[in-house]
Amino acid sequence: MVEHHHSPLLVVELKVDLDCDGCIKKILKAIKKMEDIETYDLDTQLNKVTITGNVTTEEVIKVLQKIRKPATNWEEDGAH
Q1: Burial classification of residue 42, based on how many CB atoms lie within 10 Å of its CB (0-12 exposed, 13-18 middle, 19 or more buried)
Q2: Which residue among 8, 13, 51, 53 is least enclosed by CB atoms within 10 Å?
Q3: Considering the entire predicted model, what is its pTM?
Q4: Mapping DSSP to helix (H, G, I), strand (E, B) and coil, where does residue 4 land?
Q5: Which residues touch 31 (CB under 8 Å, ≥6 apart)?
Q6: What is the pLDDT of residues 2-11, one digit of tens each?
Q7: What is the rounded CA–CA span in Å between residue 55 and residue 51?
């Protein structure tokens, strides 16, 4: 079942260490390579990455793991 024309957009919120400019550039580069992404936002204060698009949390985490940036689901992390 592959339908690409009108998939609902998903919001993926992840907790990722955004502690250095190099890391941030790497993360942005990796995110931009992903397909089906509409918008993305990095909040360096909260160490939070928000991505909107036709992607799942698992897909984004896998991409970040490839560049050795451990990411966790924002909700699961117990961050309130």
Answers
A1: middle
A2: 8
A3: 0.82
A4: coil
A5: 37, 40, 49, 51, 60, 63
A6: 555 566 899 9
A7: 8
The string of pLDDT tens digits covering residues 39-66 is 999 999 999 999 999 999 999 999 999 9
pLDDT greater at residue 78 or residue 21: 21
CA atoms within 13 A on the CB side of 14: 28
Give the tokens for residue 79: 């961050």
Q: What is the DSSP string of 28-67?
A: HHHHHHSSSEEEEEEETTTTEEEEEES--HHHHHHHHHHT
Kind and range of the H or E run holding 76: none
CA distances from 33 to 29, 37, 45, 58 (A): 6, 9, 24, 16
Which helix (H) or strand (E) segment is 23 a member of? Answer: helix 21-33
